[in-house]
Amino acid sequence: MGKRPQGLRQSMSGLHTWVGLLLGWVLYAMFLTGTVAYFKDELSQWMRPEVARRLNVPDPGIVAQRMAQAFDGAPQWSIRLPDARNPLVYAFWRDPKEQGRRGFRDGYFDPLTGNAVDSRETMGGDFFYRFHFQFHHIPVFWGRWLAGLAAMFMLVAIISGIITHKKIFVDFFTFRWGKGQRSWLDAHNALSVFGLPFHLMITYTGLVTLMAMYMPWGQQAAVNTPQERQALSAQLGAFSPPAQPSGQSVALAPLGPMAGQAQERWGGGNVGRISVSLAGDAAARVSIARAEAGRVSMSPQYMLFEGSTGRLLETRDSVGAAAETRGVLYGLHLGRFSDIVTRWLYFIVSLAGTAMVGTGLVLWTVKRRQKLQASGKNGHAGLWLVERLNIAGIAGLSVAMGAFLWANRLLPVDAPMRAAGEIQVFFVAWLLALAHALVRPPKAAWLEQWMLAALVLGGLPLLNAVTTERSLFRSLASGDWVFVGADCLFLGLAGLHGVLAWRLWRHVPAAARHAKPRPAARGAQA
Fold first, then answer.
1. What is the per-residue pLDDT for 356?
2. What are the backbone angles phi and psi of residue 75, rounded to the nearest 5°?
3. Residue 290: closest CA among 250, 263, 253
4. What is the rounded distance in angstroms from the CA atom of residue 148 to the CA atom of residue 160?
5. In the chain, which stretches have pLDDT less than 70?
6. DSSP state for residue 101 in the 8-state scheme
7. Collapsing DSSP states into helix, strand and coil, what is residue 78?
8. Which of 26, 310, 383, 512 is the most exposed place for a label (fewest CB within 10 A)?
C-alpha cells in the first residue's frame, strides 16, 4: 500500500518547524534588538551621561535661530529639534571644507547654546535600532534584504502555526512545569497566543516599510517621468526638491516666526525638524516638518517657506490614500506615536515575541534529543550545531548586548573611533560566546552564559554609579527618571536571566527523574 498523504495540519506543522529554524537566530536577534529599540532615545541619554537632564523643552523658534547662527556659511543643513525624549539637537549639514560623503557632516548640539555637545562618542540606542534591520557589518542593501527575508519567514511561521495548533487558545491556559518537551511546547504556545495580533502586525508592517526595495517593479512601471518621481517623493517624505541657486546673496530670514506659524498650525511641541537649502541665496527654502509624537501615521506633514522673506509657499497636511496607508503601517511598526504606557506595552509584548522565537528554537533540539534517547541513538551533527547556535544566538546575544553597555562606561571618553570601539566589543563578546558554546557541554554552556548575562546586566547600575555622578540613588533623589528607569530595567533583565539560570541548574532530565533506583548492595543491607 502506498504511503498515506499528509493532511493540511501535518504539512503546516513541517513548514512551521523549518521556516522557524532556518532563520530563527536572525529572527531572534531582530526581535530582541528591535524590542530594546523602543527605548532607544532613553538608552542614548543613558549612554551620554555628560549631557545634563532637561526639565523643559526649549522653544523651537529660539533653538532654530540659534542653530542658524551656528551654521552660518553652510549652504544646506537640517536639524531635529529637542523634545521630551531627546534633549539634544541632532544636525546634518553640508560643509564645503569636508571631502567625504559629498561634504556632509553630522553631530549633536546643545539647544541652549548652539555649541557642539562635549560628550563621549557613541551610537547609543541607535545601534540596536539599526542592527534590527541592517545587521551593521553587512552592506545596508543586503542587510535589509536579509531582514525582509527573515520577516517573510516569520509571517509564514505565524500563519502555519495558527493552522497547526487548532486548540491554540485553549493551550494558552495550559502550562506544565518540568515535563521536558511538553513544557517547552506549552511555553511556546502561550507566548505565541499572548501577542499574536501584535506579532502579525509587527511582522507585516516590517515588510511593508521596505516594500519598494523588495518589490520595485510596480513603482518602476508606474513612475517614469521626473515629475512623477517628484510627486512620489512628496507623498513619502517631507523633503522638497532643491531649487536652482540664483547667484544673488540674500541673508536668511529669521526662523523664529516660521517656527511660530508651524506651532500655531500643529500645536505646541509639534515642530520636529527644520531643513534649510541654499542658505544665503535668494532662492533659499525652509521646510518645517511636523513631529512624529502623538501621530500614528508617519506620512509627511510640513510647511515650506521662502528663505529670504519667510513667506509661506506651501502647506501639506495630507497625502493620498495609498501613501497614508503606508504611513499608518510604518507608524504602527515604529511605535513613535506612543506615550510611556503604550511604549511599555510595546516593549513587553515584543519581549514575549522574542521569547516565542527562542522557545521555538530550543523546542526543536529538545524534541529531537528525546527521540534519539528513546531510540538509543547518538546525536547527529545537525543537532549538535543547532544546540550550539541556540546557546550563542540566545544567551550569548544577551551577554554581547550587556558588554556593549559596559564598553560605553569603560572605554576612555576621548578614545579615537570610540563609537566603533563599543560596537566591536559587542561583536567580539558575541563571537566569544559562540566559541564557548562550541567547547562546553550544552547544559553547562547554557548555565554559564545565563549566569554571565545576569551578572553583566545586573552590574550595570553599579558600574554607572562608579563611573558617573548619576547613580540610581542620586537619580531617584533628583527625579532623573531616565537614569532610574534604565538602571531598574537592567536589574529586572538581570533577574530574568538569573531565574533562567536557576531553573536550568535545578532541572533534572526526565530520563533521570523516572529512572528506577538501583538495589542496595548486600553488605549495605546488613
1. 87
2. -75, -20
3. 263
4. 18
5. 1-10, 16, 98-102, 166-189, 192, 220, 222, 228, 230-232, 234-235, 238-242, 373-379, 507-526
6. G
7. strand
8. 512
The runs of H, that is alpha helices, within 196-273 are 196-209, 211-214, 217-222, 226-236, 255-266
Rounded CA gap, 59 and 82, in Å? 9
Q: What per-residue confidence (pLDDT) applies to 258? A: 93
Question: The C-alpha cell of 377 is what?
Answer: 541513538
Burial of 506 by CB count in 10 Å (0-12 exposed, 13-18 middle, 19+ buried)? exposed
Output the pTM of the full model: 0.86
Closest to 299 measured CA to CA, from 274, 271, 323, 333: 323
Could you tell me the CA-to-CA distances from 167 to 160, 174, 190 in Å, in that order? Answer: 14, 11, 11
Alpha-carbon distance of 486 to 491, in angstroms, equals: 9
C-alpha cell at 8: 493540511
Query: In this structure, are strands 285-290 and 89-94 parallel, antiparallel, or unpaired?
Result: unpaired
Edge-first strand listing for the sheet containing 302-306: 104-109, 89-94, 76-80, 271-277, 285-290, 302-306, 312-316
